[in-house]
């Protein structure tokens, strides 16, 4: 299968803005080549300069890349992306090219390095554990064509919140699991069992592989399913790192599937839609627990009393 790689050159301060724009178009994946960020990690002696191409390290601007299946309406999509970029009123250059699925699946690997998020250390399988991080809960991840390496604000917000709500004996459902990173994190925190649910068969395949990589097959079940439709098991915690509209759709069913005192953690919510999502959660019967914001994104935690 062919994919379209869309690359946008922008100043470093606008990389997340462009990445968020790409996610609005349901991209299959985003990678960011930001020389300022790379040099921060290099100067902190977390990464080595020799691992990166000289042209990337010396680039004047960052490059944000996104990937889309090459379909008949791809030219319409490109036009819409271009118009959205113009509306941002920032300098940018837009490039695109066709690539095959193997190049698509491996494109992000060049800049995926170990990164600490809260109690966790997320690392690709081909990287060694950095010295000084031995006390972290290590998640080995190979996101492939599924979203979720821990570097995006939406995922990081959930990873930082999980230790407050996941404890030994808890049963968890991770809805829209993607790469499986949040399901794996829940299992490492001591959850008795985790159901990792996704409607995308590619995500299901990748999540299963990552569960095996982390030797958690006995604690994490990966299921291909549309949200929680037909899901009969009562759980203590539901995680949904998706988008505002889907969280609103999920809210009433999530309330039914939680045990009394159960926790719902929703992320992937743009700040502009935070209140409407919270209103829907409260309307569904939940009580408010907390909110966290970062980089234009919101995480909401509510409880079923």
TrEMBL record:
Residues that, per the record, bind S-adenosyl-L-methionine: 155, 176, 198, 241
Catalytic activity, as annotated: L-lysyl-[protein] + 3 S-adenosyl-L-methionine = N(6),N(6),N(6)-trimethyl-L-lysyl-[protein] + 3 S-adenosyl-L-homocysteine + 3 H(+)
InterPro entries recorded: Ribosomal_L11_MeTrfase_PrmA, Ribosomal_PrmA_MeTrfase, SAM-dependent_MTases_sf
Alphabetically ordered keywords of this record: Cytoplasm, Methyltransferase, Ribonucleoprotein, Ribosomal protein, S-adenosyl-L-methionine, Transferase
GO cellular component, one term: cytoplasm
Gene3D superfamilies assigned to the protein according to its UniProt record, in alphabetical order: Vaccinia Virus protein VP39 (3.40.50.150)
Compartments, as annotated in UniProt: Cytoplasm
GO biological process: methylation
Broad class of enzyme this protein falls into: transferase
Superkingdom of the organism of origin: Bacteria
EC number(s) on file: 2.1.1.-
CDD domains assigned: AdoMet_MTases
MF terms in GO: protein-lysine N-methyltransferase activity
Keyword S-adenosyl-L-methionine applies: yes
Family, as annotated: Belongs to the methyltransferase superfamily. PrmA family.
PANTHER family, sorted: ELECTRON TRANSFER FLAVOPROTEIN BETA SUBUNIT LYSINE METHYLTRANSFERASE (PTHR43648:SF1)
Protein purpose: Methylates ribosomal protein L11.
Protein name (Swiss-Prot/TrEMBL): Ribosomal protein L11 methyltransferase
Taxonomic source organism: Carboxydothermus pertinax
């Amino acid at each position: 299968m062919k994919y379209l790689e869309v690359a946008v050159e922008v100043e470093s301060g606008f990389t997340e803005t462009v990445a968020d724009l790409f996610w609005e178009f349901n991209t299959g994946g985003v990678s960011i080549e930001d020389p300022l960020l790379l040099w921060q990690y290099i100067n902190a002696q977390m990464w080595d300069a020799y691992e990166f191409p000289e042209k990337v390290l010396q680039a004047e601007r960052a490059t944000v890349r996104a990937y889309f299946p090459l379909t008949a309406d791809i030219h319409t999509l490109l036009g819409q992306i271009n118009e959205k970029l113009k509306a941002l009123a920032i300098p940018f250059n837009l490039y695109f090219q066709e690539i095959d699925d193997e190049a698509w699946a491996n494109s992000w690997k060049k800049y995926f390095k170990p990164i600490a998020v809260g109690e966790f250390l997320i690392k690709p399988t081909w990287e060694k554990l950095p010295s000084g991080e031995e006390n972290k809960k290590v998640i080995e991840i190979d996101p492939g064509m599924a979203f979720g390496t821990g570097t995006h604000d939406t995922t990081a917000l959930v990873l930082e919140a999980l230790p407050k709500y996941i404890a030994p004996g808890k049963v968890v459902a991770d809805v829209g699991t993607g790469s499986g990173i949040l399901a794996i994190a829940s299992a490492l925190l001591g959850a008795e069992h985790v159901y990792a649910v996704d409607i995308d068969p590619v995500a299901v395949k990748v999540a299963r592989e990552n569960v095996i990589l982390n030797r958690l097959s006995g604690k994490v079940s990966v299921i291909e399913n549309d949200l929680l439709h037909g899901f009969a098991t009562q759980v203590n915690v539901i995680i949904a790192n998706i988008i505002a509209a889907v969280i609103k759709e999920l809210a009433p069913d999530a309330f039914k599937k939680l045990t009394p005192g159960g926790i719902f953690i929703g992320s992937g919510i743009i700040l502009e839609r935070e209140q409407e999502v919270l209103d829907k959660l409260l309307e569904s019967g939940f009580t408010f627990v907390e909110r966290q914001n970062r980089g234009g994104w919101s995480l909401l935690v509510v409880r079923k009393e």
